[in-house]
């Protein structure tokens, strides 16, 4: 099976204000018959509970379409949010894009 990897790169803040843009990007990726979606969080400097909710929704949308959903390059604040909400095990998380590419592609 050929992989169709779609990469989404949110910038700076992932919160209730920017959640709709993430949702739209994931929907567009799924419309291209993506088999893997990678959300590269390298440029994300802050995420709140609404941003986390947007990621959970994106994960559910992806799984419903049989698409793998991955994250990479999460910063310390995002990592702490995942720890506080016990969601580390929910997401497939890679250290950076190179680690993702070495494992997935």
Automatic annotation (TrEMBL):
Name of the protein described by the UniProt record: Anti-sigma factor antagonist
Transmembrane segments: none
Pfam families per record: STAS (PF01740)
Gene Ontology molecular-function annotations: anti-sigma factor antagonist activity
Family: Belongs to the anti-sigma-factor antagonist family.
Originating organism: Acaryochloris thomasi RCC1774
Annotated ranges, domain STAS: 1-105
């Amino acid at each position: 099976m050929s992989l169709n990897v779609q990469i989404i790169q949110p910038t700076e803040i992932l919160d209730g204000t920017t959640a709709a843009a993430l949702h739209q990007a994931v929907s567009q990726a799924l419309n291209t018959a993506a088999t893997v979606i990678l959300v590269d969080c390298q440029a994300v400097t802050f995420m709140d509970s609404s941003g986390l909710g947007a990621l959970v929704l994106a994960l559910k949308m992806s799984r419903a379409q049989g698409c793998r959903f991955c994250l990479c390059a999460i910063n310390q604040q995002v990592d702490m949010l995942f720890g506080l909400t016990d969601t580390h095990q929910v997401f497939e998380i890679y250290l950076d894009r190179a680690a993702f590419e070495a494992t997935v592609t």
